[in-house]
Amino acid sequence: KQAEKAVHQKKEQSKTKCRKARRRHINLVAEFNRRQRKNIWLETHIWHAKRFHMVKKWGYCLGDSPTEKSYRACYRAMTKQCLLQDLSYYCCLELTGKENELLKQLARVCSIDTGLTFEEACCLSGRFEGSLNLYRADRYPEDMLGPVTFIWKPRDGSENRQLWIWMHPALKQEILRELKAIFQCSEPEEICIPQPVTTSVQEEKQLDVGRSLGKKRKKEDREGEKAVPVKKILGDGTRDPFQSYSWISHTTGIVISDRTMEILRYRLIGPLSHSVLTETLKAASLQTV
Q1: pLDDT the model gives residue 193
Q2: Contact (Cβ atoms closer than 8 angstroms) between residue 216 and residue 242
Q3: Where in this chain does the record put each Pop1 N-terminal domain (predicted)?
Q4: CATH fit for domain 91-188+244-260, picks 1.25.40, 3.60.21, 3.30.450, 3.30.70
């Protein structure tokens, strides 16, 4: 029995890869992509996973509480230095179209009685970010959707403007449904999914021969399926990667695009935030042809 047990253990150990093989870049990326099938990771996930207790919320894997007693250090950074917070899990909706048409329809989902609106001069110029509460169309003060922040792209001389609206992922579906209703965006744009390139029979045979010569053992997950190819996973926790991400209105000409996880968002807190930005970001020199 002891001999049979030893042989059985050797067979099990032979199936596992050594640490060097597991830590190869191609194996790591494939494993990370497999683990993101249900919950999307942020760009700073690896850093947070080593230092925080992770929770799965709203389709993302987020850092909840630190594993070490770093509350005093965070408070010190907020009051005297600079603290960075990753808010990339917030959803972003981009509105593109004529400025008058945008302001006309957006006035139906907000009210001047609550404070700032999309028509505020300082925000409309694109210099400052604004925040307000959205309501269902023509339903103020009832049926509030939730708080959002917005920023306009500065004017470039044309009548078309771009507006980015940021919201919590729990509010995205309701706000997106209301925006599509007021702008009459019912027909989604076609999604360009690349089709596999067709090859001839001889080329396919040559490819099969080349693959068989340098073929490695197939990497399979626990379910026995093939591992996810090495590529960046598109989409986000609130949208399937193969669903529509842009809608256009043929009557108003407004285009609504879902930019979630395409635009990263970080928050700097503390008195040294501005100096950190000035030291990090360098202005590019404009070269006129």
Answers
A1: 44
A2: no
A3: 4-97
A4: 3.30.70
